[in-house]
Design brief:
Blueprint: H1 13-19, E1 30-34, H2 41-53, H3 69-75, E2 82-89, H4 105-112, E3 122-131, H5 134-138, H6 141-145, E4 151-157, H7 165-168, E5 172-175, H8 181-190, H9 195-204, H10 209-216, H11 221-235, H12 254-282, H13 288-306, H14 312-329
Parallel strand pairs: 1-4, 1-5, 2-3, 3-4
Length: about 325
């Protein structure tokens, strides 16, 4: 891979293969990065945007210097030609520079219809994209098909099948694979983790770098302990205490609730894997492997919907209901 300057990503093999030899004037108007949570989709999109904003002359599309005014503005999240939003796209009138779920399709079209202020490009990143109502998606169809000159659209999702076919057909789709244990271990060690801790977290993370970092973060210990206790109550047939998830706290923003529930589900996956491993060893049964597979599939589905506009309470209920059969099948 040929890169002029820095370009720090992990994994992203296919995206690197596509963009590394590409000339700037051969960029498509929009790309859809799809793959599991925590595999670097948004990170790659941000690195690509910074590459376009870097004002240092370079011989390749990918790469940035981190020293020029364009890079400094991007690092400070104040570049006037960069727009990022995470979560659901809505209908209404709000600030298109918002990084919250409150961005609207109308604001996107209006803001990006202007000429670039500083760079040759204006870049829109819609991370973990979903649409609150069909009208929000329909309002962007024409924009996604024929955006103004100099606009690059980047969407990321872990559930591309939930986007309208008409949205997907207007973008170049690039899949991202789960990260390997070696890749995650390397990142964690570079950030200061010991080899043993990094390897342990990487093996438990199932290809998800975000989960691996959460497993090493001591600030997540109370959440991890509470999540394991919740799981223990469920498999014992007791009503679990889930006040720690703050689902009824109206002062907690929806985005923070979704992040909390996503980390909770990651912890429950670890607890379920340990629990089932013990039961498979102690009580060999032909059906148990299938049960584990079904439960893990349900947790993966829960992780996908946890970052959408589905109520966090409904996501937790979905997890509880799908784990409950583990109890009944072993009595």
């Amino acid at each position: 891979m040929s890169v002029s300057g820095r370009f720090e990503v992990v994994g992203a093999d296919l995206a690197l293969k596509l963009f590394a030899p590409l000339a700037v004037d051969h960029l498509a108007h929009g790309y859809l990065f799809s793959g599991p949570t925590g595999v670097g989709k948004k990170t790659f999109a941000r690195r690509l945007a910074q590459s376009l904003f870097c004002e240092q002359p370079k011989s390749t599309l990918l790469g940035y210097c981190e020293a020029c005014a364009g890079c400094r503005l991007f690092a400070a999240r104040t570049h006037p030609d960069y727009f990022e939003a995470i979560g659901a796209i809505k209908i209404g009138e709000r600030d298109a520079r918002s990084s919250s779920e409150e961005i609207t399709s109308r604001d996107v079209v209006r803001a990006l219809g202007l000429r670039p202020y500083r760079a040759a490009w204006r870049v829109l990143l819609l991370g973990d994209v979903s649409f609150a109502v069909p009208a929000a998606a329909n309002a962007l169809l024409k924009f996604f098909e024929e955006p103004p000159a100099g606009v690059l659209i980047l969407l990321t999702t872990d559930a591309p099948e939930r986007l309208l076919d008409t949205i997907r057909s207007r973008l170049v789709s690039i899949p991202f694979r789960p990260l390997s244990v070696a890749e995650i271990t390397g990142v964690l060690q570079a950030e200061g983790a010991t080899e043993a801790d990094a390897l342990r977290a990487a093996r438990a993370a199932q290809g998800n770098l975000v989960t691996a970092k959460a497993l090493l973060d001591t600030s997540h210990v109370p959440l991890r302990t509470a999540s394991f206790a919740w799981f223990a109550d469920v498999v014992a047939g007791r009503r679990p205490n889930q006040e720690f998830l703050r689902l009824d706290d109206r002062d907690l923003p929806g985005a923070e609730k979704r992040e909390l529930v996503a980390n909770f589900i990651g912890n429950v996956r670890i607890a379920l894997r340990d629990f089932t491993s013990q039961r498979l060893t102690a009580e060999a049964s032909e059906r148990k492997a299938g049960e584990l597979e079904a439960m893990m599939a349900a947790l993966l589905e829960a992780q996908r919907i946890a970052t959408s506009n589905v109520s966090s309470s409904l996501v937790v209920d979905f997890v509880r209901v799908n784990l409950s059969p583990v109890i009944n099948s072993r009595r």
